[in-house]
Amino acid sequence: MDDDQGHAYLQIGEAAERAKLTQRTLRYYEEKGLLSPPTRMEGGFRLYSAEDIERIDRIRQLKDLLGFSLAEIKEMIESEDVRLQIKAEWRSDADTAEKAEKIRRAREVTLQQIALVDQKMEKMAAMRDSLAERVQKYDAWLLERSPESAKT
């Protein structure tokens, strides 16, 4: 389906299939505020724009690749929304003070995103260290009880 400007929309089933998610998951993301309420057809059917699909892809990336919780995803997405709003409001003819304020705000939300990624990386590093320590204990136990060590 296209709107008046020729932009294509996908119905929820098509959007879910493209994103490799269920329709229920898309509705849940909407309920949790990760997705804005989509445009609707006359019969109430949800319609997803290209921007909606990009956002869904971003949510999946944060969830699948980085293992973010839905709360963390929402925080990352909201920060990205702030950045996009700043970009949309950017005026090349604005004075330097106004531009500097926008850049400071964009920098602040980007630092918040970095902090979230750093927290996730620290947790993952701690988990990896714990697993590596466990492997070392297993190796030590096996080495102590190996036939070669019994001969010495």
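[next item in queue]
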Amino acid sequence: MTAELASTPAESDCTTDILRERGQREVFCGLTGIVWLHRKIQDAFFLIVGSRTCAHLMQSAAGVMIFAEPRFATAVIEDRDLAGMADANEELDRVAGQVLARRPDIKTLFLVGSCPSEVIKLDLSRAAERLGKTHPHVRVLNYSGSGIETTFTEGEDFCLEAIVPELPESSTDNRSLMVVGALADVVEDQFVRLFDALGIGPVHFLPARNSEDLPPVGPGTRYLLAQPFLGKTAAALEGRGATRISAPFPFGAEGTESWLRAAADTFGVDADHFESVIAAPRARAKKALEHYRDALSGKRIFFFPDSQLEIPLARMLHTELGMELLEVGSPYIHRSHLDCELPQLPASTQLSEGQHVDTQLDRCRAARPDLTVCGLGLANPLEAEGLSTKWAIELVFTPIHGFEQAGDLAELFARPLRRRDVLRVS
């Protein structure tokens, strides 16, 4: 075990100490980000350069039936490739050619690195450049989803980072807004309507639904993060001249209001007009949350590190639903991106960054929380020990952003407690 305590930087105004741990982790690799990215970017194809294990992981994570034809696949690295008996680049070119011939509708091909492709030192950036010349009608990009380099949601961060150099230069210095982070289409549509009603625009989303609709970027670009795990993408955007709008993340009624208000203040929206636009959806969100307050208020919750959503979700559960935060673990804590979240956590909260799964399990068992948020690999053993759990993966795959989804988000946490109570009665 290696662990150390360090005070959170003064910029966060949070007095809680962070427990930094390094050891065994229980978390999916970044390949799983393809599950939601291939649904979001509707004309892109994700070709994983990996092993049969990678293929089985994606098949299981996506729940793809054998007769389905999703826009992702695995170029399987065989024993001959690993042994150097075959030219891996020739094999990759052949498989990519087959994919593009079969799917002429594809406009962007992502070559996604994995642990096996890294082991044989396959240069996917050079392969992407080569394939782009061979198939000039398709944009070919590459990024890493390897478990050596990425955790669960970081696959999206690496993917969007790869897109940023392709964004066109803004033709004007006039301000525009870019919302960064993959959102369900229904959530994106809701935000579009709100921004339009507020008079904020033009508004672009990264990633866009079609890979050819790339948002322009330049010194006039102001961007709002919709997800807290996009550190590399944010840095790449700022390298292109964009400026981040500091805001909480849009979870719950208060989080969504503050997120929208940050954009409204940046674009000079009148306070009375802002209030008139958000009043009705905010009221609906608060009413939906109130339905779950009795079930969640006072309940003690423990977060294992998984998606980097943990801190914004903990803030929402504490401030809007009255839950008690025991430990909030996150694979990484990007302090500047969480500058509006950390001050809202109570000082009694134990923050942890990274993971040493055995020691964290010991702390969880000792605390006996009412609800534990963790990965699939830990849920069943903890349930067998009498602890109620929530699968962290559901919080990524389910639309939870914005006013209209506030009740659905609360329901995800209330459901396992309700199930526990029913089983006890039975």
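[queue empty]
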